[in-house]
Amino acid sequence: MGPRIGPVGEEPQIPEQDAKAMMGTEDIPGGKASLGPQDSRPRMFHSIKFFVLCHSLLQLAQLMISGYLKSSISTVEKRFGLSSQTSGLLASFNEVGNTALIVFVSYFGSRVHRPRLIGCGAVLVALAGLLMTLPHFISEPYRFDHSSPGNMPPDWEASLCLPTALAQTPALGPSNGSCSDATETQHLTVVGIMFTAQTLLGVGAVPIQPFGISYIDDFAHNSNSPLYLGILFAVTMMGPGMAYGLGGLMLRLYVDIDRMPEGGVSLTSKDPRWVGAWWLGFLIAAGAVALAAIPYFFFPRKMLKEKHELRFRRRVLTIAASSATKGEDSPSLQSPGESPEKQDGLAQMAPDLTVIQFIKVFPRVLLRTLRHPIFLLVVLSQVCMSSMVAGMATFLPKFLERQFSVTASYANLLIGCLTIPLAITGIVVGGVLVKRLNLSPKRCTLLCLLGALLCLLFSLPLFFMGCPTHQIAGITPPTGPKPGLELFPRCMESCSCSSDDFNPVCDLSTHVEYLTPCHAGCRSQLGQEAVDKSQVFYTNCSCVAEGVSVVGGSCDSACSYLVLPFMLLVSLSAALASVTHTPSFMLILRGVKKEDKTLAVGIQFMLLRVLAWMPSPVIHGSAIDTTCLHWAQSCGRRAVCRYYDHDLLRNRFIGLQFFFKIGCLACFALILVILRQQDKEEGTKATVPNPGPQKQSVTSGPAQKPIESKV
What we know:
By secondary structure, this protein is mainly α. It contains 27 helices and eight strands. The model is unreliable at 1-39, 146-156, 164-178, 320-351, 482-487 and 692-711 (pLDDT under 50).
């Protein structure tokens, strides 16, 4: 058979080194002399503590680069003319490569040099991040004003209602005619590059987490391994928050900051045509991943197992009750701390199986696991919860931009500083409750049911926190006697306005918005440099009241003051939903046979990817697209949406979230019904042979053992 690299927790397999393998890395150098090639490496690369530090930083950077696209999704849509459905598909495409390879990596993981493969995966992630920036460099400079010849200091007269506009109309013909070959090809190339980069991003992330966790568990002291993994997860969870924070900073900068025209640009981040430097965040995150990947090429394939338990860890275990330390309800101490003798089943057999044997065993265990009602219901509840999280993480910044007229930068900062920390707090609180209260499966289900119910209740006010779309001349029907709308479009018949141009202006007196100054019949403009150099007023407008000027930019939302209460409710509901994470995971660990536990967790994560993380952004994007009122056109195809119906957008986006929350609540309710039924059956069986003592053991106390054995 030959030596093999064992599963989690197994020692190096060379017999004459067994005694030395139990020695700590801080022992005399003679203990490591027999390991040969390790002597040439610095001492720190033989420390599992240093590996935990490196892996925490790597996973932090990897989650930052994978979550950054979600923070800039609306900006990418505007820059390249994408619909929300296409951008949702792009955001979920990194799950494709990840899902396709995760089973093979899990199977062959014990046969490879894990640190080196982690480093290779991180390098691939960094290259994918660099590839995501390529569309910016191969595209022409962003033209926010299509009526002007370029991105030079904008020709404001080009979008005015002037007699010369009639002469400019034929000039648009050649550009529209040539867009069917060069421009459309460039668009397809850019979209293809981004989809390829997202796929490579998923492929590169496959070995990072599972190999890192197994490497830590193999060579850390059995008592220190849960602590190291807890530190790893705590640092890793900051990655999404840092991604939104990075997006909030980068989107304040103009997209073409590296090729700014001589006169600069006259836009501000509040302008609907503003596009931030979305590509710069990918560049920074890719550099961070590349730096974090370097140490992995110096770690050995195997290192000496850590000898000593951490001192403060020993003190905690001494003070804590032995029942709490060794209890089966601890999610952090159960699997990592088990000895190799206790880790039986498919996880231990997998390294000894050939590919054919593994394929034969897999369907049998899969069917046995899927036939378990508790496992199926828990996975379904997690699918609903993950679908809600995936949709919210992808499109919440865009929703805030459209619904409350806030900038993309401010929306990202709100999510990164408020929602993500509260969600992390919810996960920690759920784990602490399971640990401290030593919850049984039925009580875990009650905790999940309570968290899902409160999350649902906190979501109800979100349907009413918003306001309808303001009036847009020629797009939304008039709701009252507004002079600007009564004259439209007769007031601008002689202007020959271009339908492709987008330079919105707002009539502050009537709160009516026009697509361009030309659509408002404006014939002159003047700058207001006292307040803001970029703020422009248009005068002599035939579609507004006489003597009234319109201001450049969209009309502000009347509900912008509601953005903070809205985000507070969203963050609280996210925290309550996160409380269910650990107890629902424990239901899976206790709901399947011990030998199927490892594979059940793998099946769980695969189903979450296939049923939630991949389709949910596309579903949410399609729902958002159905609320669009006015689409921009590019080469005869539908591009980015200019205006949404705010009421429909709010009702459908929040309604989709509400639907998934109801599904999650229903699944937990069914689990509770099944557990109570099993409890009754167990109690009935216990009272038949010996009514006295058996009945007392079932009705008094926490009643954990009958339920756990059944579940």
